[in-house]
Amino acid sequence: MADQAPRPAREFVVEADGGSRGNPGPAGYGAVVLDPVTGEALVEAAEYLGVVTNNVAEYRGLLAGLRAAAELDPDATVHVRMDSKLVVEQMSGRWKIKHPDMKPLAAEAARVFPPGRVTYEWIPRASNKHADRLANEAMDAGARGEAWSPSDSTAELDAAAADRAAPAGRTAGSRRTGAASAVAPAGTEGGDGGEPAPDGGGAAAGEPLARAGRGRVDAASLGAGTRAATSTGASATGTSGAGAPATGASGTGASAIGTSGAGAPATGTSGTGASATGTSGAGAPATGAPGTGASATGAPATGAPGLGVAAETSGEADVRAAKVVASPGWGPPDMGAPATFVLLRHGETPLTPQKRFSGSGGSDPSLSPVGREQAERVAASLARRGTIEAVVASPLARTRETAGIVAARLGLEVAIEEGLRETDFGAWEGLTFGEVRERHPADLDAWLASPDAEPTGGGESFAATGTRIAATRDRLVAAYAGRTVLLVSHVTPIKTFVRLALGAPPESLFRMELSAASLSAVAYYADGGASVRLFNETSHLR
Q1: pLDDT beyond 60 at 314
Q2: Which of 4, 276, 512, 539 is the least buried, fewest Cβ under 10 Å from its Cβ?
Q3: Which residues are marked as active site?
Q4: In the chain, what percentage of residues exceed pLDDT 90?
Q5: Within a 13 Å sphere around the CA of 525, how many CA atoms are in the beta-carbon half?
Q6: What is the pTM of this model?
Q7: What is the reported pLDDT for 411?
């Protein structure tokens, strides 16, 4: 048999980055392996590192990128591109490595490929946006007490969108042809340079969007924090039950994580089709007899995925607020850490299992024994995460009691914010949905049909609640810029925070389910963008 010609060695481009928020401070890295001809992203890797220096994070990113390339082809040649002058010069042999923390990392990186098979190039930070975004995603995940999840990453999509929006001439030093750059809106690179009875009725059916891709790579052997990257396309998330698919970068409504009504009920909570039974307020089925529920529709047909649809109410302030907060796009890379609101619904009261309207104008019940146990479990979970820096609560008894239990565990004080109170349900306070249907059918129909309609007896409309929550949000974002704060509130306010962040229409309030003592999260950036991070998380209760 004739000798076969040797297989030509593959070539890869590795772009890597690392950062710390403080130096040292909470840190993470990101790395991407690219096809040098097509620019296609073959593998992405990212990891939260805890508290280390920026330079250590840079070296860890380099090491991860080289290892990912070696997994694809150990005989390949690699061209590394980084915006760290220090790492590039040291690994090229032109600068001496003196720091004891970096010496072993540099030596380990040098052993991944044989000498002569890796070359290094310094590039401006603006040309290293894909890896930068991955590093920021890892740091954001660490701030939430979570590991970076490849399936939740939007770095490549952010990069592609940024390239489409960029002028024809690329930044000097960028040699990519297809793998696009992204500006990371989350954080800086330090050192481098009312209580509706069913707990929220109709859970929207998930409407996942396929993540399109060219030529995936089997990443089974690449280890935690690494994935075979797909090419540009729509992100695979559900609708978050909030009326619009939550895809895209921070500032465009990033996907809710493992939530009820979010396309895949990852937490085991209800929600991919039929609505929950019971009454309303901020979650009753829009139609259907009391106690039966009605299937909720999925995402609205209008609006690009992740961009949402502007709120359609007669309250101009509400519409303006929704449009501003959900404005799409990618901001400059140094906006600083976002103000992150961890939204906690209070624990159960005696009225919760009875599915009765319980707003601001009723009996103001305290927690039941079950509700107090729920609050204790939330407190333990948040204490393990260790990310909460302040606690703010609605003035009602059930929220103050829930907040007090959590704050005591965290060693924090509780601030009271009037704007976080539940909607006033007027004459419907204390009634079930069926009782309201029987006594006030015309008023209920009007309320279900229009966000401007008030409950019987002069309660608060959803439009008025939206305006109030938008103003409260603005005050709290200004007061807690760059910090993570726990807001202990109620069904309608929490759903409204999410609705405004997504730019979803008012009817989305009926398509979200929010359980007692559940956690949601929204991050707000300096450019006015918002990112929904979590919705209806209840794993701490199981």
Answers
A1: no
A2: 4
A3: 346, 422
A4: 52
A5: 30
A6: 0.46
A7: 94
